[in-house]
Amino acid sequence: MAQILAPSTQWQMKLTKNTTTACPITPKMWNSLVMNPKRRVAKSTKFRVYAVKSDNGTVNRMEDLLNLDVSPYTDKIIAEYIWIGGTGIDVRSKSRTISKPVEHPSELPKWNYDGSSTGQAPGEDSEVILYPQAIFKDPFRGGKNILVICDAYTPAGEPIPTNKRYKAAQVFSNEKVANEVPWYGIEQEYTLLQTDVKWPLGWPVGGYPGPQGPYYCAAGADKSFGRDISDAHYKACLYAGINISGTNGEVMPGQWEYQVGPSVGIEAGDHIWCSRYILERITEQAGVVLSLDPKPIEGDWNGAGCHTNYSTKSMREEGGFEVIKKAILNLSLRHMDHIRAYGEGNERRLTGKHETADINTFSWGVANRGCSIRVGRDTEAQGKGYLEDRRPSSNMDPYVVTALLAETTLLWEPTLEAEALAAQKVAMKM
């Protein structure tokens, strides 16, 4: 139900016209209810919605119940257990009452779900076990209620195939990786679609807006579509404790981006998955469809990526640019291994056009957004910093991408012959 702050004159006239009994709440009364600074308001970050008589004379109090503060009456909290479904992209969740507030996932019980209903287990042996791994504040229920990021295991304790967090945790717990304190800054792009037609928000149904150019970071009703969703998501992530660092409108109209980081190690994946869940919930409430398709609209339109900025302790210290170039060399040798792990449908996006590199060719450059790997001007000038992997698609699994970057640049050692050949190619591109 939409939250009403100050109804427009048109809305008030509609109420009067369509109801058998005129709505008793006049514009003056609305001003008194909503704007009167002397009126006592409950201590809550949420707007109060005042009940309006419906056509049948009943009073809808659903919003009051949703905003109900139960903390004076019980120590119990609600934990929303969240996990990744069978597609490897979808997020699922269910709620559980916990006897008291918790501060660490180890205080939470394991739980289970029906894996046969998510494509993750056969019907004759469908139980999948959830292990709580990370906790965030719940921006929807408020109070001490929490969102819980979980990974999934068989009853025997084996990680199921879609549990990519398990391997990532092994990589990040490796002493060599941990000592390098890997930082990640992830740029999550997404597209908002109209519910019934699955066509981008703000686009004419069955038609197209004007060409790209006016929409990137733009303002205006004819250029920016879905800003309220982006802003609501931004604040909800800050409330939850997600390390969101910014947001902006993207090149294709109806497409947005937000950035999470810098995050260290496994935390990057936890924060991205929780931010995606929050975005799914917000678009659900707004009646808009969230798409992470890397090329939602074919033709002369930008795709959607998940550019991943990466650095290690050695890259951030003096002489780090040489370490970055060695990392790029390793990445060039494992290019197709990374492409296979960087998201479904990415071949439709990585065409060499629309600020992408060709999917089959590895390239790198300074300030070049048409390369596989981009190095910033400031990194080159300072001789230290980070690299940006522009290959991951918008639907990539952040556990897979972050762990693979650390593995390739810190743990994997190429043969001397391959390293020499790659070094020649890297030198030619400089």
From TrEMBL:
Domain GS beta-grasp: 77-157
Enzyme Commission code: 6.3.1.2
Top EC class, one word: ligase
Molecular functions per Gene Ontology: ATP binding; glutamine synthetase activity
SMART domains reported for this sequence: Gln-synt_C
Entry's Gene Ontology cellular component terms: chloroplast
Keyword ATP-binding: yes
GO biological process: glutamine biosynthetic process
InterPro entries named in the record: Gln_synt_N, Gln_synt_N_sf, Gln_synth/guanido_kin_cat_dom, Gln_synth_cat_dom, Gln_synth_gly_rich_site, Gln_synth_N_conserv_site, Glutamine_Synthetase
UniProt catalytic activity: L-glutamate + NH4(+) + ATP = L-glutamine + ADP + phosphate + H(+)
Main location: plastid
Record keywords: ATP-binding, Chloroplast, Ligase, Nucleotide-binding, Plastid, Transit peptide
Protein's UniProt keywords contain Nucleotide-binding: yes
Domain GS catalytic: 164-430
Subcellular location: Plastid, Chloroplast
Family membership: Belongs to the glutamine synthetase family.
Subunit organization: Homooctamer.
UniProt xrefs under PANTHER family: GLUTAMINE SYNTHETASE (PTHR20852), GLUTAMINE SYNTHETASE, CHLOROPLASTIC_MITOCHONDRIAL (PTHR20852:SF118)
Name listed for the protein in its UniProt record: Glutamine synthetase
Organism: Aquilegia coerulea (Rocky mountain columbine)
